[in-house]
């Protein structure tokens, strides 16, 4: 058995075994000791993605920071609670060892042209998993309206291969995606989930249609492919948006969420380019620490420490809804402090850009 970060590493097959126990625990009777072992196994498998994801993050930074004027790059590991809930989705047969988004990097650029350019650079530098390791949702948008370019990279550490997902998107695409998440929190519905979208109706269905149409309008602005089934001219799409009975209320609720007060505790030094964001939903506090460009190791260590503290709280709380109240963290590389709102506008309640554009499309004062 290999060692990773000073501890024994588990194999992909062992991770799959733990994943099967976690999936069964949602429906079948699983003993407390068996469940605890499976949770710890899943956490260990997640921890083994730290080094591969850091390697990928460094490579992405190396390729983009000198090539683009205002890139924003983020690094994160999928939360343990999110991993477990993904495994426990009904009508799915996901395997823990095969999940390809435990480790993730995201690059946010200004234009479609920049997204295409960095995609070419990263494809040449990174080891792509296979012929299926690339999904271009910009050239072929998802029916949900989601647009981004995904690269599934393979990183080998101690003879074990790990998958790290790299997402490349424009600011408009990112504003759309985070607005979907924000609306999901407002109405208590995970609209980005394919399973949820397949079984909703009524006003929830109209909200999804709202975002599909707005995505096509954004695509028109970027001169790129429109969402399947939501093609048309600017005037036609705006008319379809206005015809939805949910539009006015949805915009009002989104606008109200941007006015929510979120206390910010920031320890930021001038000239720093790494920012560690930790957001507490329960306390509505955003904590920010900054690090200079040359101290990426310290920034990564600080993120790892934050994740370790958060994981202890999750595992202590067990598998229940309270696990969602943990601290949610992300490491951001940006040109300055003001750009962190671009990386996570739902953290800083800064979705004004999305709201203003949607109001223009609706051509109404709300």
Automatic annotation (TrEMBL):
Residues 75-191 form the RelA/SpoT domain. InterPro entries: GTP_Pyrophosphokinase, NT_sf, RelA_SpoT. GO terms for biological process: guanosine tetraphosphate metabolic process. Signal peptide: none annotated. CDD domains: NT_Rel-Spo_like. PANTHER family: GTP PYROPHOSPHOKINASE YJBM. This is RelA/SpoT domain-containing protein. It comes from Alloscardovia macacae.
